[in-house]
Amino acid sequence: MDHEGNISAASRQYLDIIAAAQLPVSEKRLLARVHREDRSALMRCWAELRAGRPYQIDYRLRSLANENLWHHVHERGFPIFDEKNHYQGASGFTQDISERVSQEEKIRQLAWHDPVTGLNNRDRLIELLERDLQADDNKTGVIILYIHLSNLRDVATVLGQETSDAAIRTLASRIKGLLKAPPQCNCPAGRECMQDAKLARYDEQSFVLALPGALDREEIYCYANAVHETLSQPMLLLGDEVLITPFIGIAYYPEDASDTAELFRRAMLVALRAASNNGTAVSFFDQKHDHEAAQRLVLERGLRAALDQGGQLRPYFQPKISAATGEIIGAEVLLRWQHPVLGFITPDRFIPLAEEVGLIHPISEWLISQVCELIADWLGMRQKVGTISINLSAESFFQHSLIQFIDEVLNRTGVPASQLIIELTESVLMQNADTAHQVINELRQRGIRISLDDFGTGFSSLGYLNRFSIDEIKIDRSFVIDLEEQGKKRALVQAIITLGTALGLKVVAEGVETRQQADLLRAMGCDIFQGFFFARPMPADEFIAFQLPAIESGINPDPTP
Fold first, then answer.
1. Which of 63, 225, 263, 547 lies 20 to 30 angstroms, CA to CA, from 501?
2. Smallest Cα–Cα separation from 511: which of 459, 552, 455, 465?
3. How high is the pLDDT of residue 191?
């Protein structure tokens, strides 16, 4: 390069790189082929040469063969001076590094993008947001929509990972569609803001959508509801209809958090709280959520410790009473947690938490094993036990290892399979009817009976009675309350009992709390009672020693209601 910046001598390889046929090549002609974003940096490097300092730079050159193709080059230059220390030009070399840059770009793609959806991943989103928040022109902040897909893990468990991946790709496409064509609601600023939105897959069960903070709460609420409605629509994937239940948590920067990590955390805890409580689909962060999250963390840690260390989780047994004879014919086993510091924690607090954090299946396995060991001890002492009912969640029921685990426990303890009843809710069966049908048949082949819990509260109860091999139905306690009053509840209970009897099923009434309820149910033809009128749930040693006193009606009340 001469003192005016023209290329005066070069190898054939260099001329090919800069797309020149012959020498000299003017500085202006060379700059014309340099990417406009790189020109100022290259010119600064040439200025460094004239000041006597060498340079090195990576920049882009337009391809001669394809105007839309860019070569990436690495260049180093060294100044040349005469004996009087006058600048005469420069020497150096230029290397085509396009292949290396391409490989690095592929690595960046893998490092920055979710392999299933192609969206930015969490690390890339955080990097982009922090860059934007540090920019001098950012005066409005940012709004985070944390979109939690509450039952996506169940889809993977029941229908397989391939279907789950297809679902997440479809949902990602739906959100991108809403970014291109925002909903028609009162969001005049929304369409411009959506152009600057950033969408990422945050983790296995969630997306994060980052929007400019210029949108007000009404606009954000409108948009978030549109996202929720769009994601809630059913999908037909690989032959199965899939429904996803999204919950969206919203947090503002800097109003709700001082950094991106805290911003994500607060939007996340709002969404997860709503999912665990089956709460509002779209929720804004509030300071009370932090307090609730701290309490939840204490419970989660305590539950893990209880499962690992033992001694805190205990099976309680609520007797089931024959309506005809008043005798105890078995029990439903219910889980109780005695925390060493917090004291007695009710199941409605820790069971949903266990399902959410993935502990419900190990807890279910522990409970099945514990109950079978107790039954084995009782049978060894020639105690009259009856059948013991155990509730299973969807996560446990659809585990591929469930049947094998039950077989191992029964073989180890020597307990006959006929001692067990597995209770399922309609919501479990709804998740995958074909797999449920197969699992139920395998359980019944072993002699384990199946009970349909909360019967009458779902949408398709009659259809499930027809499709599945059920041995017992349990009338939900909501139908038994106020049964003494004439009305629809009594008519429904009578219809359920009549139907169950006609199909050859045992009918159990839950939540029997008064003698009048028991008398009415027995007159209607109910087979089995369960409720506080007879006995509350009790520890194992109390259950096996429990006896009901006989009374005139033949129905035995709990002596200590």
1. 547
2. 455
3. 60
